[in-house]
Queue: 2 jobs
Job 1
Amino acid sequence: MEVILLQDVKNVGKKNQTVKVSDGYANNFLLKNKLAVPVSKKSVEILENQKENARIAEENAKKEAQQLAETLKGITLEFTAKVGKDSKLFGSISLKQVEEELKAKHNITIDKRKFIDKGPLDMLGIYALKIELHKGVVGVIKIHISERN
């Protein structure tokens, strides 16, 4: 029997994949547990619509990420910190602080786990932090750390 999987099934296939399995396995396990539906004109049509909608949603998400990357190019976040010897900070500027500042000043929400550069921001100067906004789309934001008077 041919079925369309509604979820990933170990040793059978991935979600939205059409697979051929024994009638007993299909009826007694896959269909009973709502892991699959039998292949029919209607189910194939629904599957194609879902794939098309997912593709369109993916394109839109990528376009939004590219627009956000363009917006981030023009942003420089300013931080002041107490400084010790050799212009080294007492502590460091965390990615959480960068995330909060971006949200407060520019109303842009980016999860701190999206930052590619995880290194400590513990010296005075200008940093360019890379952020993976979407698969294949990387934005760059500038961070300027100056001495607190």
Note: The mean pLDDT is 90.
Job 2
Amino acid sequence: MNKLELKVPPPAVALLVALAMWLATYGSDALSFAVPERRAVSMALAALGIGVSTAGTWSFWRARTTVNPTRPEAASSLVATGIFRFTRNPMYLGLFLVLAGWAAHLANAAALAGPLLFALYITRFQILPEERALTTKFGPEFDAYKIRTRRWI
């Protein structure tokens, strides 16, 4: 299982999950449900997700540290400002919100598992290994950051 750690870029995981969500809705019409203002809800969630991810990426660029999720040990600084004051993983939270918007658009119970599965996979195979690398690199500074800032929200 450790062979998957830090191997698949999170955007690729999100795309695979989005595809699986779409495929899961085929032949499951009985699981469809109404979402009031479905288009507005799905667009709002997706836009929020894109905004959250962009804010995280922008914070990394401003700090001149790596945005490469497969190489957390290459981080040159610990970013704890901007959106990182509210969540330790804004890019992953953003992808989760985009998937939630996609689930709202699909309006099918089979698709609702997608964002949850994404969060579970990313936590296990991306976030936990990143946290180990950042603890090694930044020690007590990262430990203090973990105490004051939630992993997701």
Note: The mean pLDDT is 97.
